[in-house]
Design brief:
Chain B: GO terms for molecular function: amino acid binding; aspartate carbamoyltransferase activity. The complex is a heterodimer of chains A (143) and B (329). By secondary structure, chain A is mostly beta strands. In chain A, 10% of the residues lie in helices and 37% in strands. Chain A has 2 helices and 8 strands. In chain A, the strands form 2 sheets. Chain A has a 5-stranded antiparallel β-sheet, with no helix packed on it. Chain A has a 3-stranded antiparallel β-sheet with strand order 6-7-8, with no helix packed on it. The chains are: A mainly beta (143), B alpha/beta (329).
Chain lengths: 143, 329
């Protein structure tokens, strides 16, 4: 399979297979208004299969948010058809208004004007032993 | 036990007991003991102060305990009992209610059915807010009553085997007690529950993170009751279940009666956050090991200690070092 390379933009590589659309959603990138290519379920030596997102143009990616939804991803910055730098996301200690608390008993489900805030704790929900919990009710985040 | 000057609590909101250090917890226990022995001397500690009790859901013990605590310190009380009597019925947010009420009072005690409501309240205002229960989440003053009762019975909060029995999944008092006792250390927890109501993993993680503490999970109370220093019974709470069938099936799983209690140590202390339904037989009440009505008294004394501390009113004649010396002797 061949996808035309980009000349000026970013390549989000090593996205867990099948999660590319979710990554775009979390990053707030609208596929209807952005010139991009999605490669889903591509072969990967490290992971078996992976998704790749190529975006043409000046795009700012919030690495903290990317870390939440695709912690294994890397971001390659492309200038004049050459990868000039690589960045790896790290899990942020706090996230605000990115994840929504799914606990129906949580105060965030009824109180108006309240921010959705989560903090990182050690847990068992994640292969890396990390989990985000709601600041208000301590419910684990469902990503 | 080492105490710390309570003035450090002045202006603080208490959403969870993690807001308090171990020396601060020790100081509150000493203050409660002092208050119990000096009721007249402390009767005007909070003269001119006003407590607001904002109770958005039903409560007998907790609300009356908070209100009595302030009245016994010389202060006065305003508030409501039930969301239908408040502006919440008109759609007012918690934050707006607090911003209004905080203009009237010196301290707020709030109970709300939503988890995290107390944090919202405490972030909205500078007036100290004490969490009187936020749904199934936290109930710090119940835990203050629990640790005070254990301390009064054993003179310590460490080197104990503590059994917790019943609803260990939804029981907020159980989680809070485990987490608080872990901070004192050297506790062996015996977690007695049916499979459906086992202790959540994040609470077990807290025990695992404390090297001096350990736990075992069992289904049968009778096989472990003889090993326990403390047996903390809980009610299977109907309001925590979405499905009534599950509630009815699990309600009668554990009932403590005199026959089961006969296998317990003479020094065993049986605690229960109350109200009970049928999980402790009434004839157990007369046994000296029953400590659950002492818990009610200790809850009020700890709320007195907490309220005057967050307001910043000193108890007349209270000397932390002297009190600590008395307790140690």
């Amino acid at each position: 399979m061949q996808v035309t390379s980009i000349t000026h933009g970013i390549i989000i590589d090593h996205v867990p297979a099948g999660r590319a659309l979710k990554v775009l959603d979390f990053l707030g990138i609208d596929p209807r208004k952005t010139r991009l290519a999605l490669i889903m379920n591509a072969e990967s030596q490290s992971f078996g299969s992976k998704d790749i997102i190529k975006i043409e143009g000046d795009v700012v990616v919030d690495l903290n948010i990317l870390a939440l939804v695709a912690p294994s991803a890397t971001v390659n910055i492309v200038r004049d058809s050459v990868i000039v730098s690589k960045e790896k996301p790290t899990l942020p200690l706090h996230v605000t208004n990115v994840i929504k608390c799914s606990n129906p008993r949580c105060v965030t489900s009824t109180e108006r004007g309240i921010k959705q805030q989560f903090h990182l704790v050690r847990g068992h929900e994640d292969a890396r032993g990390m989990q985000y919990r709601c600041d208000y009710c301590d419910e684990g985040a469902k990503l | 036990m080492s105490a710390q000057l309570s003035s450090s609590l002045k202006g603080m909101s208490i959403v969870t007991l993690d807001d308090l250090s171990v020396p601060q917890l020790n100081d509150l226990i000493l203050k409660a003991l002092y208050i119990d022995g000096h009721r007249k001397e402390v009767a005007h500690t909070c003269d001119g102060r006003v407590l607001a009790t904002l109770f958005y859901e039903p409560s007998t013990r907790t609300r009356l305990s908070f209100e009595t605590a302030m009245l016994r310190l010389g202060g006065q009380v305003i508030g409501f009992a039930g969301a239908s009597q408040s502006s919440a019925a008109k759609g007012e947010t918690i934050a707006d209610t607090l911003k209004t009420v905080s203009n009237y009072v010196d301290v707020v005690a709030m109970r709300h059915p939503k988890e995290g409501a107390a944090l919202v309240a405490s972030q909205a205002v500078d007036t100290p807010v004490i969490n009187a229960g936020d749904g199934g989440h936290m109930h710090p003053t119940q835990t203050l009553a629990d640790i005070s009762t254990i301390f009064n019975r054993f003179g310590r909060l460490d080197n104990l085997t503590v059994g917790l029995c019943g609803d260990l999944t939804f029981g907020r008092t159980v989680h809070s007690l485990i987490e608080t006792l872990c901070r004192f250390g050297n506790i062996n927890f015996v977690l007695i529950s049916p499979d459906e109501l086992r202790t959540p993993q994040y609470v077990l993680d807290r025990i695992n993170d404390t090297p001096s503490c350990s736990y075992v999970e069992v289904r049968d109370m009778t096989e472990v009751i003889g090993d326990l220093d403390v047996l903390y019974m809980t009610r299977v709470q109907q309001e925590r279940f979405f499905n009534e069938d599950d509630y009815l099936r699990l309600r009668d799983t554990y009932i403590l009666d005199m026959e089961k209690l006969s296998a317990g140590k003479e020094s065993l202390a049986v605690l229960h956050p109350l109200p009970r339904v049928n999980e402790i037989a009434v004839d157990v009440d007369d046994d000296p090991r029953a400590a659950y009505f002492e818990q009610v008294k200790n809850g009020m004394l700890m709320r007195m200690a907490l309220q005057c501390s967050v307001i910043g009113d000193e108890l007349p004649g209270y000397d932390a070092d002297k009190m600590e010396e008395e307790v140690n002797n």
